[in-house]
From TrEMBL:
Domain NR LBD: 110-340
Protein name: Uncharacterized protein
Keywords: DNA-binding, Metal-binding, Nucleus, Receptor, Transcription, Transcription regulation, Zinc, Zinc-finger
Family of this protein: Belongs to the nuclear hormone receptor family.
Gene Ontology MF term list: nuclear receptor activity; RNA polymerase II cis-regulatory region sequence-specific DNA binding; zinc ion binding
Pfam families: Hormone_recep, zf-C4
InterPro entries documented for this protein: NHR-like_dom_sf, Nucl_hrmn_rcpt_lig-bd, Nuclear_hrmn_rcpt, Znf_hrmn_rcpt, Znf_NHR/GATA
Record bears the keyword Iron: no
GO biological process: cell differentiation; intracellular receptor signaling pathway; negative regulation of transcription by RNA polymerase II; positive regulation of transcription by RNA polymerase II
Main location, first listed in the record: nucleus
UniProt domain Nuclear receptor: residue ranges: 11-86
Length: 344
């Protein structure tokens, strides 16, 4: 078994919030707090709502802030509702029954741990406008140059993407030059995926920052109108897949590793190995979580080229995307070199 993709015994933390794990509960390594939360939610059939964008960060410090996202993360990581109902036999005595799911064999265990690590690597931070923008709408920002304002916010995403990639299982094992090549080639795709995923609750609009929605209807600038229109189209296509948190984490990693770099890679075999492990993890997760949808894995993979083609067209046709890449690639390359040489 490849230990690169496993959490060691000294790293046994709750997959949901990162607190100290007390063991496997309902099929997932979790703490007493998340175990009790999941059990209470299922037994009482509680319904929650998210007041943000259904992508709240769930960790030890803020796990109680959004119960909706906390429960969705429990489900995405493989917690089984059926296990709650079967938790105890009549009279309160524990029922000895092995849980089937992501842990039923060694290969699936590796996939399960990889899924957990991918979700934990998810970049949760959302760009924030500078204080001098906070009281201004998009139209009011025109004197401050709206294109530059949105560009500044989007460039903040580059640092988040770099930090995310460094936490993706297997990425740091790849040759350092290949890391830069993969991120440079896949940057626009990952940025678009990230922006559009958090924008899905806002139909026809794109969340470029925590307090800023951008849509073709609320901007009067041809460059931003084109950018917003193409992002909205991409978000609509992405929404049709109805990806859960685990699937989205896998798709992000797949898009990162499945790049045809212009200059080639120093170690294509290693990149393909990491890519295939991610594909296997996604397949195993879908098989376990969506047994009633046997074609879901193939359906998602068939949609990825369409999403990639849309990103390519944006790079070719959208002036904002072209300017973004012109500014972002040197920033990314410089930052990766710093990180690879141990500078924070």
């Amino acid at each position: 078994m490849d230990k690169t993709f496993l959490v060691t015994s000294s790293q046994r933390v709750c997959a949901i919030c990162g607190d100290r794990s007390s063991g496997f509960h309902y099929g997932v390594q979790s703490c007493e707090g998340c175990k009790s939360f999941f059990k209470r939610t299922v037994q009482k059939q509680l319904q929650y709502a998210c007041v943000e964008s259904k992508s709240c960060q769930i960790d030890k410090n803020n796990r109680i802030r959004c119960q909706y996202c906390r429960f969705q993360k429990c489900l995405a990581l493989g917690m089984l509702k059926e296990a709650v109902r079967e938790d105890r036999a009549p009279g309160g005595r524990p029922r000895i029954k092995s849980l089937i799911g992501l842990k039923e064999n060694a290969e699936t265990f590796v996939s399960s741990e990889l899924i957990i690590q991918l979700i934990q690597a998810r970049p949760d931070a959302i760009p924030k406008r500078r204080p001098d923008y906070l009281e201004l709408g998009l139209n009011d920002m025109c004197p401050l140059n709206p294109v530059e304002a949105i560009m500044e916010l989007t460039l903040q995403e580059v640092e988040h993407v770099i930090n995310w990639a460094k936490r993706v299982p297997g990425f740091c094992d790849v040759d350092k030059e290949d890391q830069i090549s993969l991120l440079s080639e896949g940057l626009l795709e990952v940025l678009i995926l990230r922006i559009c995923q958090r924008s899905t609750p806002h139909q026809g609009a794109v969340m470029v920052a925590k307090d800023t929605l951008l849509s073709p209807d609320n901007v009067f600038n041809i460059v931003l109108e084109q950018w917003a229109g193409q992002l909205s189209c991409f978000a609509y296509k992405l929404q049709s897949l109805q990806l859960d948190m685990a699937e989205f984490a896998c798709v992000n990693a797949i898009m990162l590793f499945e790049q045809e770099t212009s200059g080639g890679l120093r170690n294509r075999d290693l990149v393909d190995f990491v890519l295939n492990r991610t594909l296997d993890a996604l397949r195993d997760y879908i098989k376990s979580s969506y047994p009633e949808k046997p074609s879901r894995f193939a359906h998602i993979l068939l949609k990825l080229p369409t999403l990639r083609d849309m990103a390519t067209r944006m790079a070719e046709e959208c002036l904002f995307a072209q300017s973004l890449l012109h500014l972002a690639i040197p920033q990314l390359t410089s930052r990766m070199i710093e990180l690879n040489h141990g500078r924070p």
